[in-house]
Every structure is written in structure tokens, then in C-alpha cells.
């Protein structure tokens, strides 16, 4: 399925910062379109102080890149742009260059649903510098947001354990695609269903829902509203019980539940959307059980997140088994942006030249980039549990020591014995602009998240103050970086 | 221009919560499709503790509603959905009903670019309850996000005063439309330009940019990189000076600037993206001025928001006159969701019946809804400055007292003398499903924001602890609400 083609049938190649196009133009003017580069997209800090993040966004990026071409309306728009003296920003020769430009980069990426950590490339682009620039912004936009939400969802699912988590964020999400991409990423991260029907249609995510307060208000009283709903949908009946008085609402719902039972159906659930969720759920459970409605579940919603769910389950013994999570998931409310960056690793003046490694310095060590053409090797224990990740440079031989060095602190390093099993995480996605990767289904990506998270030590999955997973530079890459810092620092 | 048609050529009618459709189905099953309702979309608290918000999103909502119909693929998807016993969620008769359903609501709304306040309807929907339900979620999604961002932008522009503000948020925005809608709303709120080229193309927003660190890294040294850029774009040359050493970077840029000057061009600006922006900008200004480059501006970026800009300008005397604002604007980082709601005001069982006012109770007074079919009247002083807003019910006569009563505290009220000039804010947008409103251009909406904000007392525009603008209920509406609280509370 090609989502972007389906949702956005306009070309998305202009979904980029203007400076990418002015830099591309400057390359063209300087006759440097042969220049090639390797860029890596990565983040420096996990969101939410989480011990891990969940990679997400690749399938959307694939759709975007498969439509990476300028349409005539794009070119006409670019031709209208003016510089500060009123002359055209771009010469028509450049417009012609863009018209016939064909995407021919190599892209390697970590599959969706993989636990990932700071400093490691989630995606690597190798190809004409001019193209590497134009596609930077859209790739960051997609990967930053979807990785952020998949991570949030994984944390919420971790807190909810075996309970169902429903994503209800559409009405507060950041725009139309903010909601659709959030539903997708939340599902990959571990949510069980969404309320967003369009996301259900586009991705095959299960859709779930109850009813609104307005349903009750639109009837003469609560019982009448419940009856009307149950009669219409005996096979999908979860009643919202807090429009007026919650405990009274539960009692009204129980009447309906007994009635449904008699007719061979069942009251699937009741929903609490306000008040003291622990107290009310415990009381409601008692009333439901006493009435024999033991298979009616209790759904809760109302500004939930991983911390509140964990507290309700572990400290307050709430009788809730289905969690409707909206705003705080779909907007990643406590940290609404992942600061992923896209940095140059090496460059060459033409495809026949040698690669030259490159570094970006900063007064903050965390902002000093990593040079080279990077790959990530994940070492595992014999039982499959993750041990450590090594970032290495494909342009250098590997050191025999098998020692990895913390990129932010050279004093911290870790030896890895030679026979340790491993897997390289970056997979070939495009070669010379042609797709060579078979995208897994969204269900497979979701399953991957679940399986892979089981290989992560539980200390790393802790919601607060998690243990930090070791990610280091291969020794020769470390030395290369130190060397470049010296050279550029002079 | 029809944005949604252009960006999203798939039908968006399924951009709704499943429960809207199951409620619609229940109405149909209960033969209650004749029921009519009035709903109001409003927020209870301004975002960012701001003294005001800026309404935004209406033009997108108009596009959405002009395409409010089920396509065959939507219906096929709905027909596949199953209830918890595996039977179809929707009978085929309902699918047929949806197939021929025609949008025929009346919509009234406050134009984009208007300062708005808690509790007042930004948009009112009147029509078949079934349709009012289906369109709720998309309307909230659009209005919540765009109003949030327009408000953030207005605050940032307020802090920046006459300086230029450029929106650079695309790479960190929440999804593709999260960025496009953010660019649009930021422009309406007061930003001067965006880096997002697609938003520029779609909306005619001016596009601006400089160049990236990677441009410098991709050359042998900074001077060479600057020369290459300036040579290619003498009419659009703003140089990023902090890739290695900022002050050295400024000196390299000055060389280029002098060269451009000699050739009859000019160095438009330099950009600082890290470090102590106050110190560096003051030093850079000195160096530029000493070199005679007095018309080269200093652009700053790096996690800016209204507070930082205000501090840099007012407390630190930074020599910055162009502000590039990204993540914190495009995601409304300190409060990434506006909690706008959509509540039932009145109902009738068919178009020929009397309207019945409705209320939603809550233990928190702020969450008790306002009944009726509401309109907002804005009173002004003789010089045009805003005085107070009155929410009144079009189904009740107005009291002669002209007294407005705070909806959250009946002790607070304000008399308004009879001859006070006023304007009603909700304008007719759709009548019986037909568009009757001529949308202003985005430039006109941006100008409206600017003009209208000048009518707001500066205490209300203060960034922190603003003065609160009086919004009250008309006296008869207040009495109706008190009456309904008594009745429903029993």
C-alpha cells in the first residue's frame, strides 16, 4: 500500500526547507552536481528520558522517496521565487536540471519496530549531495515524529502490561496527518486499536470506540440513551457511565447488561472518563460482579499516560483493564518533538573519488558528529538478549580488540568477546534509487516491537531512571573521530 | 484554493472517531435520523496561560466540509467492520443511508485571525444530530491545532515586536500536515515567512532560508563554502557562521560581504545557531558595522520561543533583528494540545419541533457546559478597543439590563451600557450545507490578526500573568443555565 500516494496525491518533494533548494542551486551553479555524500539520521537523546526508543517512519519514507520527483506545478512555483533584489532566485537552467533529475541514492535503514538508542543512525543516505540535501527535511519530519510516538506507545503498553491500550488521540492531534501518523506509530509501538477510522481504513489497524457524553444528553435520560444504544448495537456495546452521576450510571448500565445477557448478547464494557478512576473502577467492578456481569470490562480514559496507568495499576489497584489514551500519546505531550538530526559523515567530489570523512564540531561533546559511512552492529547474549551496540565505519577495517567506546566519554568502554553473536541493523532499502526492500506489514512491525522489547533488560525498560544501554564506537572509528577533532579544532 | 482537495485527495469523512459512526448507526436503527442538534466548539482555558488565543482553522474546515461525503471505498471499509461476536457492525441499510447522505448543516464561525477567549463558541454546528456527530472529530482536530499554533505565533511576534519572525519548524513538526498546517497557522498568527517550500506553494506564504552546517562541511573550508554560496546567489545570501568558530565565521562572512558590495550586491545577513546569542550578536554587529556592512542583518535560531526572544531583546540587548523559530513554535512545545471541546447546546426531535436546551454537568464548574444556540457579541469602546464579550442564546430574548455574568463565578459580573457599540462574531459559513462565506485570503487573515490585536489592551497581551479579558453570559442565558443545573442536578 502506498500511503502517501493515497493520502497526499500532490508531490511532496517541496516538503523541504528552502535552504535545501538554495544549496542545491549553489551546487549546480558551481558545477558540483557530481559531489556525493553520506548522511546519517539519528537522535542524541531518547525522548521522555526513556531507556530506549522504537524506530518508526520507514514505510512512510519509502512512499515519499518513490515519488521523489518535481512536478510541473512545483517547478512553476520555484521559477516564480525571487531574491532580495527582485531577480529570480533560480535560473531556468536549474529548473530544467530539477525537471529531469532522477532519484538515485542508496538508502539503508533500521526496520520499523526496532529498539534504538542515541547516536546510532536510524537511516543512512548515500548519493549525490544535491539529492541528499533536498530529502533531508522530509525524512527528519517523518522519522522524528513517528519514532517519538512509537516510543511513547511502547512505554504506555509497558505500563499497561497485558491490558488493552486504545489510541484515542485524533481530536487533539497536531493536524490531520499528525493524527494519522500517530495512529500508525502508536500501533507499531504496541497499542491494540485506534478510534481513528481513517487510520483503520488506510493501515488495517483495528478500530474501537464507545459513545460520547452527547449521546446521553441527546436523550431524555441516561437509561433511555443506554437502551437505544444497546438495542442498536448489541454486538458492540460499551456504555459511558459518567455523564451525570457515575455510580448511578453504572447501575443503569447493569440493567442494560442483564437485558443484553438475557437476549444472548453481552455488555462488552463500561467507560469511566472523569473522577477518581481507582475508586470508581473498584466500586463499578463490585457492582458488575454482584450482578453477574463478570465479563464486562472497565475502560478508562481522561488524560492518561504511562505514569498514571502505572500508578492506577500498581499503587491504586484500579479495576481497569482497557485504557483509552488520547492527547498525551498522540502529541507526546511531555516532550512533543524528538530532536533527530541529519549529519554529514563523508563526502567525495565525484563517484570515482575516495570518500573523505567529515565531522561537525561543537562546544558540547554531545553535539560533535560521528564521521564515516556508519553501520550498527547489535551484539546479543546466547539467549538472544541485547548486550551492546557498536557503531562502525564501513570504510575502515574493524579493530581486532572488539572494544566499543562511549561517543561522549572516551573513558567508558566495553570489551566484546570475539564469538559474540551479532546482527547488523541497517538494511538496504534503496539501491541507486530503486526500492530493494520488502516492507513488512504494519502488523509484522508491531509484532517486531513486541518481540524485540523482550530482548531488552527490564532495567532499561523502567519508566523512570532506566539503566542505560551500552552503545559505543568501534575502536578505529573512535580514533578517526579523535583525529578529525584535532584537525578541525586547530 | 481548496487545500484539502489538493493535499488530500482521498475523502476525509472517515477522519472521525469510530464512536461517531456507531452513534450515527444507533440513531438510524432507532429511526431518529430526524433529530437535530446545535453543537459549539470552544476551549475552556487559553493555551500557554496566554491572555487570548487567535482563532484559526476555518478555511481548512470549509475544505473538509465541501467534501463531506462517503466514497465507495469508505463504505466498503465500513461494511467489513465487525462487532464483538463477529457479526457486521453496520447493517447494509445504514451503509445505503450513508451513501446518499447529503451534508445539510448550518455552520457559523468566528473568522480566522480573531482574538478569542475561553468558553465562547469558535464554531457552531446546527443540523441533523447524525451529521453533527460525524463531523465533530475532524473539526476539533483542525481547530484545536491551528488555533494553538496561531496563538503561539502571535505571542512570538508580540515578543519580537517589529523584527521579522521566520517559521523553521518543518523537521520537528508532528507529521507532514502537522508541518503544513503549522506553517499556515503561524503565518496567520503573525510570522513573516516560512522555510517550508510546500506551505509556500500551497498558501502563498513567503519562503526564506539561509544554508545548513553541512554546506560548510561539504567544502574544504568555511571561506570556500561561503564563496561558493555567495557566487551562486548574490541576491539571496545569508551565511551561517557557527560551523566551527563563530567569530572567525563572522570575519569570513565579512570578507564575502565586502566582495558582494563591490559587485553591487549585498550580504543580506549572517545567522547564529548556537552559543551565547546575545554576546555573539553584539560582537558580530560591531564587526559588521566596522566593515561598513550596516545593512547586513543578524538572524538567530536555536530553540527560540517568546520568552527567550523577549529576554534577548529586552534584558540582554542582543543585536538580532530576524528570529528563526522552529520546534517550539511548530509543536507548541510548552503545551502541544489545545483542549478544545464540542458540546451539545440544544436538541429537537425533528425540524418542526421546538429546541430543547441541554447541559452537561461536572463536579468542576469549569466543565459545566453552556446551553442554547449561542452567539458572541463583542463590545468595544468608542476608540475601537475591546471592552468585553457577551455570550448569548439566540433562542432567548436579551435581558434589558445588559449585564454579563462570569460563567465560572456568578458573583463576577459587568454592566454594559446600552449604547456601547458591538459586533457579533459568529458569521454564517454554511446554510443547509451550502457555502455562503467568502474566505479571506491568508494574507487578509494575517492582517486581521495584526489589526485586531491592536484593539486588545496591552495588559492582556503580556506574556506572563496577563490581565484577564471579561467574557460573560447574557443574563437570561445565565438564568437558563442555573435552571438546568438545578433540574439535571436532582
TrEMBL record, chains A, B:
- What positions does the domain Nicotinate phosphoribosyltransferase N-terminal occupy? 14-144
In which pathway does this enzyme or protein participate? Answer: Cofactor biosynthesis; NAD(+) biosynthesis; nicotinate D-ribonucleotide from nicotinate: step 1/1
Q: Which Pfam families match?
A: NAPRTase, NAPRTase_C, NAPRTase_N
User: Reaction catalysed?
Assistant: 5-phospho-alpha-D-ribose 1-diphosphate + nicotinate + ATP + H2O = nicotinate beta-D-ribonucleotide + ADP + phosphate + diphosphate
Q: Which residue ranges does the record assign to the Nicotinate phosphoribosyltransferase C-terminal domain?
A: 374-480
Q: What is its EC number?
A: 6.3.4.21
Q: Which GO terms describe its molecular function?
A: glycosyltransferase activity
Post-translational events: Transiently phosphorylated on a His residue during the reaction cycle. Phosphorylation strongly increases the affinity for substrates and increases the rate of nicotinate D-ribonucleotide production. Dephosphorylation regenerates the low-affinity form of the enzyme, leading to product release.
* Classification via Gene3D superfamilies: Aldolase class I (3.20.20.70), nicotinate phosphoribosyltransferase (3.20.140.10)
Its transmembrane ranges are none
Q: Note the superkingdom of the native organism.
A: Bacteria
Keywords carried by this UniProt record: Glycosyltransferase, Ligase, Phosphoprotein, Pyridine nucleotide biosynthesis, Transferase
Q: Which residues form the Nicotinate/nicotinamide phosphoribosyltransferase domain?
A: 167-334
Q: Which family does it belong to?
A: Belongs to the NAPRTase family.
PANTHER family the UniProt entry points to: NICOTINATE PHOSPHORIBOSYLTRANSFERASE
> What the protein does?
Catalyzes the first step in the biosynthesis of NAD from nicotinic acid, the ATP-dependent synthesis of beta-nicotinate D-ribonucleotide from nicotinate and 5-phospho-D-ribose 1-phosphate.
Protein name per UniProt: Nicotinate phosphoribosyltransferase
Amino acid at each position: 500500500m502506498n500511503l502517501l500516494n493515497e493520502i497526499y496525491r500532490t508531490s511532496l518533494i517541496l516538503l523541504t526547507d528552502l535552504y535545501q533548494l538554495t544549496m542545491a542551486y549553489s551546487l549546480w551553479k558551481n558545477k558540483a552536481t557530481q559531489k556525493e555524500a553520506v548522511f546519517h539520521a539519528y537522535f542524541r537523546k531518547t525522548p521522555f528520558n526513556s531507556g530506549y526508543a522504537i524506530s518508526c517512519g520507514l514505510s512512510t519514507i519509502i512512499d515519499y522517496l518513490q515519488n521523489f520527483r518535481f512536478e510541473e506545478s512545483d517547478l512553476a512555483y520555484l521559477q516564480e521565487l525571487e531574491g532580495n533584489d527582485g531577480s529570480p532566485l533560480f535560473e531556468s537552467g536549474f529548473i530544467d536540471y530539477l525537471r529531469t533529475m532522477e532519484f538515485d541514492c542508496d538508502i539503508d535503514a533500521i526496520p520499523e519496530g526496532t529498539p534504538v538508542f542515541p547516536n546510532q543512525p536510524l537511516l543512512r543516505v548515500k548519493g549525490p549531495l544535491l539529492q541528499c540535501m533536498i530529502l533531508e527535511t522530509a525524512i527528519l519530519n517523518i522519522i522524528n515524529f513517528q519514532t517519538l510516538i512509537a516510543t511513547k506507545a511502547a512505554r504506555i503498553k509497558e505500563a499497561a502490561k497485558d491490558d488493552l491500550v486504545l489510541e484515542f488521540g485524533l481530536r487533539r492531534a497536531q493536524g490531520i496527518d499528525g493524527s494519522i501518523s500517530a495512529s500508525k506509530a502508536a500501533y507499531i509501538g504496541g497499542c491494540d486499536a485506534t478510534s481513528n477510522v481513517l487510520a483503520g481504513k488506510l493501515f488495517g489497524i483495528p478500530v474501537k470506540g464507545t459513545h460520547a457524553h452527547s449521546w446521553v444528553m441527546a436523550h431524555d435520560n441516561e437509561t433511555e440513551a443506554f437502551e437505544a444504544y444497546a438495542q442498536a448495537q448489541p454486538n458492540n456495546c460499551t456504555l459511558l457511565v459518567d455523564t451525570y452521576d457515575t455510580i448511578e450510571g453504572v447501575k443503569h448500565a447493569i440493567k442494560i447488561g442483564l437485558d443484553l445477557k438475557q437476549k444472548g448478547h453481552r455488555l462488552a464494557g463500561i467507560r469511566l472518563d472523569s473522577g477518581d478512576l481507582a475508586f470508581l473502577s473498584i466500586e463499578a467492578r463490585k457492582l458488575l460482579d454482584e450482578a453477574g456481569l463478570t465479563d464486562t470490562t472497565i475502560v478508562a480514559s481522561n488524560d492518561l499516560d504511562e505514569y498514571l496507568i502505572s500508578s492506577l495499576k500498581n499503587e491504586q489497584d484500579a479495576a481497569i483493564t482497557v485504557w483509552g489514551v488520547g492527547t498525551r500519546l498522540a502529541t507526546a505531550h511531555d516532550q512533543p518533538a524528538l530532536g533527530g538530526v541529519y549529519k554529514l559523515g563523508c563526502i567525495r567530489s565525484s563517484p570515482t573519488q575516495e570518500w573523505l570523512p567529515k565531522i561537525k564540531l561543537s562546544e558540547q561533546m554531545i553535539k560533535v558528529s560521528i564521521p564515516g559511512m556508519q553501520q550498527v552492529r547489535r551484539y546479543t547474549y546466547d539467549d538472544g538478549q541485547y548486550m551492546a551496540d557498536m557503531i562502525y565505519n564501513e570504510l575502515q577495517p574493524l579493530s581486532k580488540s572488539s572494544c566499543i567506546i562511549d561517543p561522549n566519554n572516551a573513558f567508558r568502554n566495553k570489551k566484546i568477546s570475539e564469538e559474540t553473536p551479532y546482527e547488523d541493523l541497517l538494511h538496504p532499502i534503496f539501491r541507486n534509487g530503486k526500492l530493494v526492500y520488502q516492507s513488512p506489514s504494519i502488523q509484522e512491525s508491531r509484532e517486531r516491537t513486541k518481540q524485540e522489547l523482550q530482548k531488552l533488560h527490564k532495567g532499561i525498560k523502567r519508566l523512570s531512571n532506566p539503566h542505560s544501554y551500552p552503545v559505543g564506537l568501534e575502536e578505529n572509528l573512535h580514533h578517526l573521530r579523535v583525529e578529525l577533532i584535532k584537525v578541525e579544532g586547530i
